[in-house]
Design brief:
This protein has one helix and five strands; from the N terminus they run E-E-E-E-E-H. It is α+β, with helices and mostly antiparallel strands.
C-alpha cells in the first residue's frame, strides 16, 4: 500500500483525463464516505469524500482484491465489547 499526500495533488490517467471518482450507492448523507477511482487501472485509489484534496491511498489490484475478499469473509467486522 502506498500513501500519496500533497496539497493540490492531481492524479492523471494515461491520456491526461482526470480520475473518475465514485462513491458507493450505499453511502449515507452523514459525510462518512470514501470515494474510489481506477478500478480498471493499474492502481485503485481511495480518498475521503470530505477532503478530496487530502491524502489518497493507492492499492494494486491484488491488494484491493485481498481487501474486498476480507470484507466479504467478515474479517473486518467490529467485535462487540464484553460487558
Amino acid at each position: 500500500m502506498r500513501l500519496f499526500v500533497g496539497k493540490g495533488l492531481k492524479y492523471r490517467r494515461i491520456g491526461g483525463s482526470p480520475p473518475d471518482w465514485r462513491k458507493s450507492s450505499l453511502s449515507m448523507h452523514n459525510g462518512n464516505c470514501v470515494e474510489i477511482s481506477g478500478l480498471a487501472d493499474d492502481l485503485i485509489r481511495v480518498r475521503d469524500s470530505k477532503n478530496p484534496q487530502g491524502a489518497v491511498l493507492s492499492f494494486t489490484p491484488a491488494e484491493w482484491d485481498a481487501f474486498i475478499g476480507g470484507v466479504h469473509l467478515g474479517e473486518f467486522n467490529r467485535k462487540r465489547r464484553a460487558r
